[in-house]
Amino acid sequence: MTHTLILLRHGQSEWNEKNLFTGWYDVTLTEKGRNEATRGGALLREAGLLPDVLHTSLLKRAIITANLALEEADRSWIPVNRSWRLNERHYGALQGKDKTQIRDEFGEEQFMVWRRSYDTPPPALADDSEFSQIGDPRYADLGDDAPRTECLKDVLERMLPYWEENIKADLAAGKTVLVTAHGNSLRALVKHLDGISDDDIAGLNIPTGIPLVYELDEDFRPTGPGKYLDPDAAAEAITAVANQGKH
Ligand SMILES: O=C(O)[C@H](O)COP(=O)(O)O
């Protein structure tokens, strides 16, 4: 028996449009992002891939994307689980900063280390920054463990327990699972599923709003590569993500 897992990055957010590092800052979708989310739902419906359960982050760009996609697929009624463990990578002191300005100020190499290295986080964000999440009630349970910055390795380590305990349990129960999350939390999950090395993961980018479907075997290993439901749009959008910050 195989399991069906659908990964969906949120549609374009207001800060994606403005080219700002976002991380845990809670911005909403643009009109384009809302349309991407609805189109994602149409792709699911057309493929006959109807989720039985949804897992999202605590950030509204993922939550709204899931709502729009599920409405389009006529699955608004499915049970929902939300966790900070699916949040975007906390982007530290880069949150709220313009990607092109950071690249110009610190150079391409440092920019890419902060953006795509596996284990080097950006500098920590000060608790009194206007872009900080310290004191946000949705993270109250984390107490002083709430991150002030994260690298992809940190994201993988905090995401994996949720994968193991929550998402796998739904897959094991025979459910088609939709995970609606973020560029870097999904990069972490794909790294784990596909066994991508710490070096090679730098080259992986996830497009907004296009469902990525995995069939998994009884050990929750992919039976083949994950498939985007609109491969041409995905290829174009992946290039756009890879080129962010370039003039
Ligand atoms: O948090 C962000 O800025 C984006 O959602 C992901 O950004 P990245 O592709 O630059 O890591």
Automatic annotation (TrEMBL):
Domain of life, source organism: Bacteria
GO BP field: gluconeogenesis; glycolytic process
Binding site for substrate: 9-16, 22-23, 61, 88-91, 99, 115-116, 183-184
Pathway: Carbohydrate degradation; glycolysis; pyruvate from D-glyceraldehyde 3-phosphate: step 3/5
Keyword Transcription: no
Site label Transition state stabilizer, positions: H182
Keyword hit for Secreted: no
Annotated keywords: Gluconeogenesis, Glycolysis, Isomerase
Pfam families in UniProt: His_Phos_1
Active-site annotation: H10, E88
Matching SUPFAM superfamilies: Phosphoglycerate mutase-like
PROSITE patterns listed in its UniProt record: PG_MUTASE (PS00175)
Reactions that this protein is recorded to catalyse: (2R)-2-phosphoglycerate = (2R)-3-phosphoglycerate
Entry EC number(s): 5.4.2.11
GO molecular function: phosphoglycerate mutase activity
Enzyme class, broadest EC rank: isomerase
Family: Belongs to the phosphoglycerate mutase family. BPG-dependent PGAM subfamily.
Role, per record: Catalyzes the interconversion of 2-phosphoglycerate and 3-phosphoglycerate.
PANTHER family: PHOSPHOGLYCERATE MUTASE
The protein's name: 2,3-bisphosphoglycerate-dependent phosphoglycerate mutase
Gene name per UniProt: gpmA
